[in-house]
Amino acid sequence: MQATTKGRKAAYWTTTGLLAAGMLSGGIAQLLRTPSTTQGIVHLGYPVYIMTILASWKILGVAVLLLPRLTLVKEWAYAGFFFLMTGATISHLASGDKPGDVTAQVIFVVLIVLSWYLRPANRRLAAVTKLPD
């Protein structure tokens, strides 16, 4: 294995591990409806029940990213995380939070993009060369 391949693999697992840890811990906090997550959701103007939906998606998305195979579902998980965290960033800014208050959300967006970009070939969809007639 070449040094660049090893470095890319290490970067993939580092970004994916950080992403998974953050999404899992956030999902658990939302599932448990901790006071800080509940206050955050209410501050943004969303109903509290949305935390159960978001938590379920986060936890399932983490499982999909970490499990082998499931390449099509991984693409959906990455897309879901991307929409979730860019939406969180916009929601915070729209509710009057300062740009510095969305640092965590922006870091997660970067982790999502890096993890997706660095994923190994066995975690990517096969290229579609011809669509069925």
TrEMBL record:
Main location: membrane
Matching Pfam families: DoxX_2
Domain of life assignment: Bacteria
Keyword vocabulary terms for this entry: Membrane, Transmembrane, Transmembrane helix
Location in the cell: Membrane
TM stretches of this protein: 12-32, 44-67, 76-96, 102-118
Protein topology in the membrane: Multi-pass membrane protein
Cellular component annotations (GO), alphabetically ordered: membrane
Name of this chain's protein: DoxX family protein
